[in-house]
Amino acid sequence: MLEIMQRGGIIMWIILFLSVIAAAVIIERLLYFRKIQVDEEKIINRLKSTLAKGHFDEAIAICENNPSPISNLIKVGIEHRQYSSAVIREVIMDAANLEIPKLEKNLPTLGTITHIAPLLGLLGTVTGNISAFGVLGKFGSVGDPTLLAKGISEALLTTAAGLIVAIPAIIFYNYLVSKVNHTITRLENRVNELVILLTGGKIE
Question: What are the distances in angstroms from CA 62 to CA 37, 48, 49, 77, 192?
Answer without folding.
Answer: 15, 11, 12, 14, 20
